[in-house]
Write a structure and sequence with these properties.
With 599 residues, the chain is α+β, with helices and mostly antiparallel strands. The chain is built from 19 helices and 11 strands. Strand 1 and strand 2 form a beta hairpin. Its EC number is 1.3.99.41.
């Protein structure tokens, strides 16, 4: 079983050398003075917690799973104790504003910690992870009483939160949910219905669970315009803030799943449970999107975590495992065979994992900085611009990082060969745990439709142009840098093609709207590869500049340039196949009548 080691040097590279975190924070008055010493100290402490507390219970948590009996869920051995330590270290309150009892640090630091937690033990990390979205929702949409009663306990970590959206008949189509909310005389509401796939919906790690629930009021409009949002606690809260009687919400069962066994995925039954309206009536989905954006970035982090964790395990094994001789002659003649890392096919898998992990880290951390500006920026124009970039990049990050993370996880199994299929090595667990990331918070296909349909075509390309201009300016600034030509020339061409491809799809969609659905997934992959190309070119430039100066870390920076070169030569050409598939249009997809699919 691979022992997780936090990639602190690469985190420091991305935060300080690529994204200039200190300067970024100084531009936001709420975060001014957040210096490197503080940043690195927090992340190093989190790394120690993740390496020594969470990683050791990752495999055992998967093997044991959660226990369900008569509505009660018990988490795997060690989970509850690790959560108490997590609270003692102050992590739940880290990125919450001081106004609401938090430490007031930037969300981008919180996301860096989420990466560490998720790579060490994704199942465990989902318990406190779901609370972040509940906190954000209450911060933005809760009234003062709700903040005092519920937010304060979520911030300390004494209570945890969930998001209750999905129903068995509805899936991602929230417009057809049936859970209802009937007004009570005391101003509360009676919530009745069933929600499924509720992560951390019931557990023994906190004394209360605050469910954020979508439901319909009597007479509400049909569709998404008639959904309201409610707080429904596991235990009602007395006027003095103490825990009261059990609310009428109960875990009916837990799902038997492919992966994330250490996290309870629950069926939650609401039987006239007492709830409280958050925000305006029939505007619940708008309020929930505060939660959803946080959740989607969190899911993107799972893709990053899968790539990093699988890469660490595969690299360790590839250095030690002996099999066959190098085709160019023995590399370790004193041994009976060479380590498999000498073979080009194994190198290809390892470098793919490395490129996806480090590229994913750069994208998540860049996204997190834009989220900082949206959350606490001082200038409304800058906040709007950052929100536009975030709106475009979030579906790319969520879908592309989870798909590439899943690919990287599969490479990890492949590097191990037959041993990768055996549970004791831990590589197959990463595959199982990661597969869900391509599904929840909106499948890859739904994210693709969101990107192409809503974010690009419905804005007539405005959001896309905001980002392609960033890439264009970078390319223009470096077009005369001979050392960067191998990166700048293909990036410039692909950046232009991104706009041309969008226009071609848009023209076809005017004749047949199904062209959007036919092109969307390939368009998202194309967008993801180009976005990574931009980030890898930036990382290569930073590395070149460091090597031109006075540095003792030549190996580190040379590895950055070499990985960037691998990405451009071996992975970026995948864009060609996506362009070709898009060009074929919708006809072959819709030609076969639905009734003729069967034998």
């Amino acid at each position: 079983m691979p022992q997780y080691k936090a990639p602190l040097r690469d985190i420091q590279f991305v935060m300080h050398e690529l994204l200039n975190a200190e300067q970024h924070y100084d531009k936001i008055s709420a975060y001014a003075g957040t210096n490197r010493e503080l940043i690195d100290g927090i992340i190093e402490a989190a790394a120690d917690f993740c390496e020594n507390e969470l990683s050791p219970i990752n495999h055992s948590g998967d093997q044991e799973g959660c226990h369900y009996e008569d509505g009660v869920v018990t988490t795997p051995k060690g989970f509850k104790e690790a959560y108490q330590k997590y609270i003692e270290l102050g992590y739940p309150s880290l990125a919450v504003s001081a106004e609401h009892g938090g430490q007031g640090l930037p969300g981008s630091i919180g996301n860096a910690i989420s990466e560490l937690v998720g790579t060490a033990n994704w199942s465990w990390g989902m318990y406190p992870g779901l609370s972040h979205g509940a906190i954000r929702t209450l911060e933005h949409h809760g009234n003062e009483q709700q903040k005092q009663v519920y937010l304060s306990k979520l911030v300390t970590g004494e209570w945890t939160g969930t998001m209750c959206l999905t129903e068995a008949h509805a899936g991602s189509d929230l417009g057809i949910i049936r859970t209802k909310a009937e007004p009570n005389e005391d101003g509360s509401y009676a919530i009745t219905g069933q929600k499924i796939f509720i992560s951390a919906g019931e557990h023994d790690m906190a004394e209360n669970i605050v469910h954020i629930v979508l439901a319909r009021l009597p007479g509400a409009p049909k569709g998404t315009k008639g959904i309201s949002l409610f707080i429904v606690p596991k235990f009602n809260v007395n006027e003095d803030g103490s825990i009261g009687e059990r609310n009428k919400v109960r875990c009916g069962s837990i799902e038997h799943k492919m992966g994330i066994h250490g996290n309870a995925t629950c069926v939650m039954n609401f039987d006239s449970a007492k709830g409280f309206l958050i925000g305006p009536e029939n505007r619940g989905l708008n309020c929930m999107f505060t939660f959803m954006n946080v959740a989607r970035i969190g899911t993107a982090i799972q893709g990053l975590a899968a790539a990093e964790g699988s890469f660490q395990g595969a690299l360790t094994y590839a250095r030690d495992r002996l099999a066959m001789r190098s085709l160019t002659g023995p590399k370790m003649p004193e041994k009976e065979a060479d380590p498999i890392i000498v073979h080009p096919a194994v190198r290809n898998m390892l470098l793919t994992q490395k490129a996806f992990a480090e590229g994913g880290r750069a994208l998540v951390y860049l996204l997190s900085q834009f989220a900082d500006i949206v959350e606490a920026g001082d200038n409304e124009e800058e906040k709007k611009y950052a929100d536009n970039i975030l709106s475009l990049l979030t579906p790319i990050a969520k879908a592309f990082l989870t798909e590439t993370g899943y690919e990287a996880a599969n490479h990890g199994v492949q590097v191990y060969g037959g041993h990768g299929f055996i549970s004791e090595w831990g590589m197959e667990q990463i595959v199982r745990d990661t597969r869900i990331a391509c599904l929840y918070e909106g499948t890859t296909e739904i994210q693709a439709l969101d990107l192409l349909g809503r974010k690009v075509l419905q804005t007539q390309g405005a959001l896309l142009k905001d980002f392609t201009k960033i890439i264009h300016k970078f390319c223009e600034a470096n077009k005369d840098n001979a050392a960067m030509a191998e990166f700048i020339e293909p990036l410039t061409a692909l950046n232009k093609e991104w706009g041309d491809l969008t226009m071609q799809i848009g023209m076809k969609a005017m004749q047949n709207p199904d062209e959007v659905g036919a092109a969307a997934v390939d368009y998202l992959y194309f967008s993801g590869y180009v976005t990574f190309a931009y980030l890898w070119a930036r990382m290569a430039l930073v590395a070149q500049e460091k090597l031109a100066g006075d540095t003792t870390e030549t190996d580190f920076y040379n590895a950055k340039i070499t990985t960037a070169r691998f990405y451009f030569k071996k992975l970026l050409p995948r864009t060609r196949s996506h362009v070709e598939v898009i060009a074929t249009g919708v006809e072959s997809l819709m030609a076969l009548d639905a009734e003729h699919f069967a034998f």
